[in-house]
Amino acid sequence: MAARKPITGILIALCLLLGLASPIPCLAGMVTFSFDDGLTSIYEEAFPILKKYNQRATVGIVLDRVESGNDDYMDVKQLLVLQQNGWEIASHGLTHKRPIDIPLTFSEEVVTGWEVEDKFPCRCVYETKYQYDLVAGLLENDRSLKKFDTLVEVAGNPGSYYFDNVAGALHVHTHQPVTEKDVVIRSISYQRELRDSQRGLEKLGFHVQTYVTPYNYWTEESQALSRYYYTQAANGGESPNHEDSYDPHWLKRYLIHSLGSADEVIKLLQKKLTASDSWVIFCFHGIEDDRGWEPWSGEKLERLAQWLQEEGIKVVTIAEGAAIFRAKQ
User: Fold this and answer.
1) pLDDT tens across 262-288, in order?
2) 39 phi and psi, to 5 degrees?
3) What is the C-alpha to C-alpha distance for residues 309 and 137, in angstroms, rounded to an integer?
4) pTM value?
5) CATH of 27-96+200-315 among 3.20.20.370, 3.40.50.2300, 3.40.50.2000, 2.60.120.10
6) I need a labelling partner for 26 at 20 to 30 A (CA). Which of 13, 120, 253, 311 fits?
């Protein structure tokens, strides 16, 4: 089947005049593939499919997973190949936390109220009540503390911590012996997640302009913080973006679920891409692999990619789409 030519501005105008019942395809605007979490299947499955159709995507990377050595996630070498092929590497956080689960700003990071754990003769372990649901990481004078799963392990390892989330108690064994009043521990904040994930990825050789929110969770406060570090940020929202109403730091995405078919996604695009300023961003996770959250099949991805090419619909990264919108303002 011969590929269809891109729709011209004249056809778009005619289509809008005739309405959606017109046999002329009423399609315009642009589409973005974004893949969260940096799963290896993106490199192994999604990359070859999209490359076949000369299409690129944005991949959201969690910094500590890249550095973990876990082969469920892409490594630096694979990510550099994607970047060299026009893919965008975006930050997906330092440790993949929501802003409501950890301290929000640098000023809220200091943990106070430390007391000596009397059960250990060394008097080297300290405890305090912790007011947040999760710990993204602890720092002692900018040195990381290693996480353990039991209090006994912490007692035997200087420079470590244990969080008892049931009791809401935090336990630390400092790097060096200190008195109670000299214990200075910081709990990694969401602001640090934003800043340090970008810095870490750039040190690895990536140009990072975009933040992709973990769990598609966003607040006005975290949005405001993102403006200090990123040109744009993408969330959930289940709606298209338009030039006259979009916020570059609150870009909307459609979440693609495992059970959704390619035809359902195409029908959505046929409905939403009816104006030249329509921009639909899709949020995927794994492809052809049960690791990660709600993977999609390679067959579905190829069906969608082929349809986009046949319809002449522009496929852009998040950074490219945002730049196109900015240039029109």
Assistant:
1) 999 999 999 999 878 899 999 999 999
2) -65, 145
3) 44
4) 0.89
5) 3.20.20.370
6) 253
